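We treat protein structure as text, and this decision shapes the records that our systems exchange. Because each token names a local backbone shape, the row as a whole describes the fold. An entry from our holdings is shown next, in its original layout:
>
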Amino acid sequence: MAPLDLHEQERQLNDLAKEFEVLRARVGDLSYTPGVDALRRIGPLLYQVQDLTAVVLVRLNALHNSSHTGVTYGRSSLKCLSSVVVAASLVSNALARTLHANPDESMPFPGRRMEDAPARIARQAKAILLMNGYLDEAARQLELCARGCRFAATHVARSRTATQARRTEFAQSKSGPRPPVPGMTRSSS
């Protein structure tokens, strides 16, 4: 298994957590008007979470294909990142469902009559409730993504510390006690 810079992995996971937090804030602060405006505002969020999901998979693969799997806290960091993949996928799903619930404001097809204003307003109100519910779910899952990345980073840091301690202990046990250097004595004054 390849050696892995655990300090760098920890840094990347913490950076990833920050990116999920920023996206969570964007989703939580999102204001939109149903129709084209909602599509323009929500579509880029969906792209972004899919990009972040890909990055999580890269981090997961890097840790999985390294010696990290055999060290203390190694498996728990992999489990955390696996749960982040699930949560990020659920964010994508929630944002896609938001777009699906977005009412179509285009002109009706030929042969289909125009909707009257009260019917359109009622349809939009129902859509807004659905869309807001999906956006709330996306925000909750993004919070879980950020937490999962932070937990994984913590496990990687603990793993690094435990590995360093074992190396130091092994090096000391190999060298044994050091003999005194000739000619050097401790004098008491």
The chain has a mean pLDDT of 85.
